[in-house]
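User: tokens in, sequence out, please.
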């Protein structure tokens, strides 16, 4: 597909395709199977007129890409961000396919996106847009078809509005249509923490393999949202020092450690970290290049690039975000050889794992304790790590390619066994 133009063509989609090809080469996948495993299955583009508080009507555009439906209902978050493109959503959907397959979930992969700066909207405007988006994708999703979840710019409240819209359409309460809901509406205990908790679990496990102790660990986190703040909190409780955090307004750096509670309170009150007094203000670009043990990109794609890969001063990159490292940066880092990477499809898989638990609890109308959730989560993470480590040794490849070899091979085998239709 790298040779063909598609509606998805874009730098981030090409990045995902190049990653796929490296894994497919190792697998010796034949051309026909390669193309249909790689290419997204289908997408919908929706136009959404929304009445703004001013009385004016604004038209928004949104997408839902279902990359793979061969291994179960599709699964993946919904992003609200001003820079969303169809190609980006397709790349994110592709990564969901490999991630679900890698950790052994009975799902395909999908992603959704709406071009909007949610920060500029009032709560009532955001509610109308969220409900309209769900209204438009209702014919294409469902608990057995495609189950959305939160991503950048969306949260439990947005999931609640969307679940309510879908349920009203059906005429009955259907919590299993979406995950990341509030606890009062069938959300799972531990889902808010899940992605960051999983990132922290992998960081601890790989640092242990590298022989680094908690007290000797400093951590810089780009993106102080759901994933970044929860990962920071979990690593702080483990004993690490969080020396840098950031959001869309810029970064805060403090080699003596940042007060996470104060930062969270400041962000809740001021809507961003801008002006937070707990450290030195840096740009996001500068923050990534500060010395630390662990660098956690937890915002958007393509922030570790050919420009800065040579300048990073960390020992471990834990990809909380999806697609933070460009293909060129991957190559530079591999040539450097002094920085390890925990790739996105492994590193942030805790989120979709607990989303799966939430869906199971909804389907069974039987709810688990937080201990049960975390215990089952940690077991699945440990199993995924062991299989990636073994595959990396077996093929003597990068950890990213090893994770993708596992994720991709399971999808392509299912497709080969099913035939041409799925
Ligand atoms: P979020 O909206 O809760 O937080 C995003 C954070 O990134 C915010 O602090 C925002 O200010 C910051 N940000 C936005 N633009 C930025 C920029 N240009 N530079 C620096 N920071 C910027 O989103 P989230 O759910 O935490 O998702 C973050 C990443 O993690 C995304 O890549 C997402 O796909 C991935 N992810 C999320 C989950 C999940 O469960 N939410 C699961 C797996 C992966």
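Assistant: Sequence out:
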């Amino acid at each position: 597909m790298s040779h063909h133009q598609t509606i998805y063509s874009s730098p981030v989609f090409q990045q995902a395709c190049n990653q796929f090809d490296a894994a497919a080469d190792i697998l010796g996948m034949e051309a026909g199977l390669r193309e249909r495993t790689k290419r997204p299955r289908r997408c919908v583009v929706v136009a959404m007129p929304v009445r703004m508080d001013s009385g004016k009507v604004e038209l928004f555009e949104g997408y839902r890409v279902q990359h793979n439906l061969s291994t179960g209902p599709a699964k993946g978050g919904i992003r609200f961000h001003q820079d969303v493109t169809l190609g980006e959503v397709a790349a994110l959907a592709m990564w969901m396919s490999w991630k679900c397959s890698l950790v052994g979930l009975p799902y395909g992969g999908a992603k959704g996106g709406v071009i909007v700066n949610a920060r500029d909207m009032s709560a009532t405007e955001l509610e109308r847009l969220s409900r309209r988006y769900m209204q438009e994708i209702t014919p294409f999703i469902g608990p057995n078809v495609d189950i959305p979840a939160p991503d950048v710019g969306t949260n439990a409240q947005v999931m609640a509005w969307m679940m309510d819209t879908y349920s009203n359409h059906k005429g009955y309460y259907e919590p299993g249509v979406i995950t990341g809901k509030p606890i009062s509406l069938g959300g799972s205990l531990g889902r808010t923490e899940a992605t960051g908790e999983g990132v922290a679990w992998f960081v601890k496990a790989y640092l242990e393999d590298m022989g680094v102790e908690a007290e000797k660990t400093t951590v810089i986190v780009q993106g102080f949202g759901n994933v970044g703040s929860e990962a920071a909190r979990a690593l702080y409780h483990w004993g690490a020092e969080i020396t840098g955090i950031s959001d869309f307004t810029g970064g805060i750096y403090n080699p003596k450690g940042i007060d996470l509670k104060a930062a969270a309170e400041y962000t809740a009150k001021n809507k961003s970290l801008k002006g937070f007094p707990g450290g030195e203000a840096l740009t996001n670009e500068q923050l990534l290049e500060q010395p630390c043990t662990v660098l956690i990109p937890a915002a958007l794609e393509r922030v570790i690039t050919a420009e800065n890969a040579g300048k990073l001063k960390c020992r471990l990159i834990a990809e909380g975000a999806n697609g933070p490292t460009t293909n060129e940066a991957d190559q530079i880092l591999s040539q450097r050889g002094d920085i390890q990477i925990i790739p996105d499809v492994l590193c942030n898989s805790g989120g979709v794992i607990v989303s799966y638990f939430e869906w199971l609890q909804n389907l069974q109308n039987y709810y688990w304790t937080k201990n049960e959730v975390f215990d089952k989560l940690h077991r699945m993470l440990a199993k995924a790590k062991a299989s990636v480590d073994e595959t990396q040794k077996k093929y003597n490849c990068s950890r990213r390619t090893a994770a993708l070899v596992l994720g991709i091979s399971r999808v392509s085998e299912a497709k080969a066994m099913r035939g041409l239709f799925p």
